[in-house]
């Protein structure tokens, strides 16, 4: 639905400084469309760069009505409240946007396209509900294993630790180095950024591995490397997306993503994370299914650690990277702060 000419305002109430704005922050960091305003009532007049570290000069306003002064034609919902449902005052913002002629990009679980309570759409307006199950899906059959390309899947010790960002940075550097490469989106944010893929959490579980496999077979034939956006975590008690990603993509390489210093599941503090070495063993064992998916080169291996150090000072971040390298004997970097080259080198070392 989004085209390159669309001017976007991002609805990001409580997302610039909170934990619910991953989609909006990713649009700010990686989006190619012009972003003309960010709507966040708690951060009006402040700097995007000072709040987030993202070097993008976009005004922060308190309401959708105020954003209209910057001539947006699309409102993108950049927040994910608990339960996936916007509170009524924020739904009012959607109504104002539609009444003002804006189209809407909705990445929430709750669909909006058929919700007449939001108001009537004009002839050139639309609502894109990003989380939709594609048609024509089947059960996975391990067919991605036949592809000649490297298939790199980001896996995590928890949800929301930076798996998509890691893959996007790896994809960018691979292109800069001249490798034929592509990025497959598996969540709403990657799709909103304009990449092909599937909103995996909108797919019925029996067809999830097949949906991933279909994307690999569509996009991986003529590539040197395919980066598959990770979702969830095998360590999270509520996560269901990681296993079909492992099955559908049949990865040749894994990159383990971890937030430095985190020792429990973020929303389940009674669940303690394993050491990085133990997490690596879990992912390699499950990825190979105990040897079922092993080929002549052996099963997929974790090639490097992508460490999220956003919350640390430079000195502490470098110390955390050094510690992770020593613990795992693998390359480690924060791909956003220090670049993705060490991981790229590990992926293409053979």
Label this structure with key terms.
alpha/beta; six-stranded parallel β-sheet; globular; 31% helix; 350 residues
> Which spans have pLDDT < 50 for at least 5 consecutive residues?
none
> Main beta sheet: strand number and arrangement?
6 strands, parallel
Q: Return the string of H and E elements.
A: EHEHEHEHEEEHEHHEHEEEHEHEH
User: Which strand order spans the largest sheet, edge to edge or round the barrel?
Assistant: 3-2-1-4-5-6
Helix content: 25-40%
Please tell me what the overall shape is: globular
Mean pLDDT: 95
Instruction: State the distance separating the first and last CA atoms.
Output: 40 Å
Structural class: alpha/beta
Number of strands: 14
Strand content: 15-25%
Which SSEs are present, and which pair or pack?
Blueprint lengths: L7 E4 L10 H9 L4 E5 L8 H5 L7 E2 L2 H4 L6 E4 L10 H12 L3 E4 L20 E3 L20 E7 L6 H14 L4 E4 L3 H5 L12 H15 L5 E4 L13 H8 L3 E7 L4 E2 L2 E5 L3 H13 L12 E8 L5 H15 L3 E2 L7 H7 L3
Parallel strand pairs: 1-2, 1-4, 2-3, 4-5, 5-6, 7-9, 7-10, 8-9, 10-13, 13-14
Antiparallel strand pairs: 11-12
Helix pairs in contact: 7-8
Give your account of this protein's structure.
The protein is α/β, with parallel strands linked by helices and 350 residues long. It has helices spanning 22-30, 48-52, 64-67, 88-99, 163-176, 188-192, 205-219, 242-249, 276-288, 314-328, 341-347; strands at 8-11, 35-39, 60-61, 74-77, 103-106, 127-129, 150-156, 181-184, 225-228, 253-259, 264-265, 268-272, 301-308, 332-333. The strands form 3 sheets. Strands 3-2-1-4-5-6 form a 6-stranded parallel sheet, with helices on both faces. Strands 8-9-7-10-13-14 form a 6-stranded parallel sheet, sandwiched between helices. β11 and β12 (268-272) form a beta hairpin. The longest helix has 15 residues, at 205-219. The protein is globular.
